[in-house]
Amino acid sequence: MDIMTSHSDNFTELVVRLRRGDPDAAAILIQLYESELRIIARVRLNDPRLRRVVDSMDICQSILANFFVRASAGQFEIETPEQLQRLLATMIRNKVTDHARRQTADRRDMGRIVRHSPDELPLPATQDTPSQIASVKELAGLVRASLSPEELSIVERRTSGESWEEIAAQLGGNPDALRKRVSRALDRAAKKIGLEE
Which end of the chain is more exposed for a tag (fewer CB within 10 A), N or C? Predict the structure, then answer.
């Protein structure tokens, strides 16, 4: 992820564009981070039985879509490429843990999963197409449509560049409580549209 570090002057602009739901910014982020994220996901997918169910591309596409939707709602405070790297790595770790937990729930036997020969396994796409990137914007629209008018108003203030402190000062209340409220609303909306299992 050294590429973005060398362009740190542009990083703030990239985050602003992501908050606006700019598909070109999403494409840039994918170009810069996807290969490194897939490596992190592969390392986390260390159980061969789990790798038969989910691969690194599945994990990366899922967390990137989730990240783009939440970034376009202003949920994250990201100031440096290193913060973004840590956030995405944490999202990968949590997603792999969730998959592993689901596979072992109710003593599910991953050994019962049908084994395929390598020739029968679908090959993941090597990069996102423009339509896949554009669908992120559509997902963000679906999430926003699931928010209450007050939650949507807060999200719009965040995406216009207001800080949590500024929004709390105008609406009253605590910035952390406001941030958590929006985070819970986004969790609820993401589950409703199937973005999070």
Answer: C
Contact (CB, 8 A) for 143 and 69:
yes
Gap between the Cα atoms of 29 and 48, Å rounded: 29
Q: Rounded distance, CA 160 to CA 133, Å? A: 22
> Residues 17-71: pLDDT tens digits?
888 878 888 888 888 888 888 888 888 888 777 777 788 888 888 888 888 888 8
Give how far Cα 126 sits from Cα of 55, 58, 69, 135, 174, Å.
13, 11, 22, 17, 44
Q: CA torsion angle for 54, 98, 39, 15 (degrees, to 10)?
A: 120
Sole residue written with tokens 């700019």: 22
The rounded radius of gyration (Å) of the Cα atoms in the chain is 18
Q: Which of 57, 197, 68, 59 is nearest to 143 (CA)?
A: 68
Residue type, 171: L
Kindly state the DSSP code that residue 137 receives in the 8-state scheme: H
Note whether 152 and 144 are within 8 A (CB).
yes
Give residues with Cβ within 8 angstroms of 194, minimum separation 6. none
| Amino acid in the structure at residue 151 | E
